[in-house]
Amino acid sequence: MSYDFPILSYIVFMPLLGMLVVLLLHRESHNTIRWVSTFFAFVTMILTLILLKDYDWTTAQFQFVEMYNWIPAIGSSYFMGVDGISVPMLVLTGLLSLISIVISFNITKRVKEYFAFFLLLECGMMGVFAALDFFLFYVFWEVMLVPMYFLIGIWGGPRREYAAIKFFLYTLFGSIFMLVAILVLYFTTEPHTLNMLEMTKLGPTFSHGIQVFTFAFFFIAFAIKVPVWPFHTWLPDAHVEAPTAISIILAGVLLKMGTYGMLRISWPMLPEGIAYFSVPIVILGVIAIIYGALVSMAQKDLKKLVAYSSVSHMGYCMMALGAYTSVTALAGCMFQMVSHGLITGAMFLLVGVLYDRAHTREIAAFGGLANKLPVFTALMTLFAMASLGLPGMSGFISEFMIFVGSFPSYPIYVGIAVLGVVLTAAYILRMIQHVFLGEFDISKWDHLTEINVREILCVAPLAVLTIFIGVYPKPLTDLMRATLENLVMLMAR
Amino acid sequence: MVNLTPLIPELFLFCWALVILLVDLFSKRRTTELPGWLTMLGLAVTGVLLFIFRGGNVWHGMYVSDGFAFFFKIVFIGAAFITVGSSFGLAGRMSHHRGEYFSLLLFSTVGMMFLASAKELITLYIGLELTTIPLFILAAYTKSNRFSAEAGLKYLIIGATSSAILLYGLSIIYGLAGTTHLPQITINLSIYWLTYGEIGPALSTAMIMIVAGLAFKLALVPFHMWAPDVYQGAPTPVTAFLSVASKAAGLAAFARIFVGMLIAFSTDVMAPRDWGNFVAVMAAVSMILGNIMAIRQTNIKRMLAYSSIAQAGYIMVGMVAASHLGISSISFYIFAYLFANLGAFAVVAIFAERTGSEEISDYSGLAQSSPVLSLLLAAFMLSLAGIPPMAGFLAKYYVFAAAIEAGYTWLVILGLLTAVISLYYYANVVRVMYLKPQANKYHIIPSFPAGMVLAITGIGVLIFGLVPQPILDMALDAASSFVF
Q: Looking at this predicted complex, what is its ipTM?
């Protein structure tokens, strides 16, 4: 498809431009900084919507391709393009970034730095989903870590410094495995290339040993990001200590980079690798589902509960990825990525709203909030129901597709994983019961105010999309069908 | 009549160093900044001359001006230029010997330039000595300071010892080959080897001695013990120069001798690549020890000293690859390292001048009082840690790529693991500046030359990470000076 306007570059670098503009503003003019950041995030989101509109979903071809020489000495080029799995991610990132920026208006500490770092983070995230050159991909992947470190470390909760450096070191530790795998593949291809598409074409010609070795290395890097049990220990710290907006981004976008990386890189590129490791991956997925749900059930802190529920929900994605021969399972995985981004993003947002007012997130401290905060309760309940997979919401669709798609290959594991749904219902309902129902402590919580308009405006699009996808999933399925079919074909080579 | 054209940059710089001495003498030391500016001018002119008189060789190929020499000379001149720029504060506080300071720096630079071009053992050795002897004096320059005096003495003793070991190794090579001309040594040793099928333990002994001698200059473990004390005690700009230029000089000598001359040899004790394995182990230990020791340091100069030990380890990862890619990777690495490390030391010097402190904890909250300075130091730290899009990342990527190509996968994995460790202490500086509450209200405004240095290094670490191709082309050209 010919498209003269380099829209991907604009999407990726618009936030960077925004960062530069923010840096030029005076540090005391807080409102200007906020609105300028909002403006750039908004423009970026509009661009992603234009991308969505002009994307031709009937083909698995990469579209809006941009390719320029960058560093020929190491075989790297500036190569960007999108297909049916990156477009939804770009749109999701654009939306969640805008929402996160608007929800961050209540940040009063070092405002200029906050929004500058946030926009840099958005640039990195967009880049990861658009890059088709390994070196470029890796650069964006790493660039994100630095603003993330600051955002958690400066504006986070009490244990922010520990959480920030843990996140930084843990993710970097994962990335080095990816780097080794990239280098090994680079020297395996002849002529040497860092072009992901070329490499995917050549994938099946690599020896079995190379495929298994690099697959394992890529897997460690991506699994830490997802995070797959047992690589998840950075997640509770980072999620809980991060400020609200960053929790949204972490859960909504960063975790998806792991699964996106798997779908984009290791799965189609190394078919023998996935064939070799598919069963362990399904097992890890099932463990994550059950373990995440059980741990969520034991949480006393609302935010921690949502954080561990992410481990559980991403477990469904891993299970689907293990059942790689089924288009339905992979579509379920993609659905889960989008839907979890919407739902968990909203949950973190709402928990943040409550925390701003109550200054505590302890589940046991609340009770009967439904009377005092009806709108807030309605919204929270909506997303809680979506999270436990109530039919009519996006969560149900994705879980259903994953189960249906994975069942033919792994009936027993799916059987165990279904238990996870029950456990999810248990901890979600328990949370609702303790926080919103029961006795209302009027002496303690009388000062709580209802969710305000700005916050409602942030949640509303997420709520609408969650229900829309849940009721009418066809547009999203259509968007990625051709690509996923192509992926399954590539993996079957 | 010998055609000395390729030597013009070196000759010019040498004369210029003398001019600075004289200017300082006749201006009766009234003008405090003149010698510094003159030195920078001289270095800039030398840089231009380098571009004009590129190529050619002197004295029957014993002194060559090839791509490799050219690249490293650019590095030396760049390092000297930046060092001079951050020396103005130091020079301003000196009541006398100001001119000598700058001319000694230039003499050392001339020595390095000789070294990079040497294709002959004696020239190489003389270049090395001309490099080091002025540095002994410079390390002890603030001689009223006990630490500086100690640094000078330590450096002198260690430097002299290592030179002796190196010289002994070189003499054994001469004994085996009967010549000091590097390409001729290769030929003679090859004939010897083809005739007798072995060379015997003498060559291995020589190799070990040369490695040891040069490893002292590069501060590779286990020959690194001098580095932290000398780095801490020496005046900060001198430390910066030591950590970059002197290291680059050692590197150039190492590449000339090992990759240029000894690559093809097998002895009954050592297989062809065995010096590679030997050096690979040293690189591995340097990366591990340097990075782990750096974590515990509270003084930023000591921390950077250990970091430079680790960085030398990373460079040697590219060296052991001993390939076209390997040489170009170490060239690029030293180039990227130049900006990051000199920049970091420049900030340290500026900060110490204002606050009198070199403790990391005193940088607390600096991001709020001096945002630009902190941003720059953070960028230098991230570049040293190898975080994209800084130049340091591409440098690490490139040396690791070279090592993977040469089959040293274990070394790469180890190097990357230690790079994660290194992030901890580099990020610690960033953490103290950005995450800690403001301790003191230092609004630091650097002087004009120091600001210029910061601008050059700051732009350098970013731009050569994003648009590295011109430098990579030069680095590839440098690697073409070697036959593989």
A: 0.90
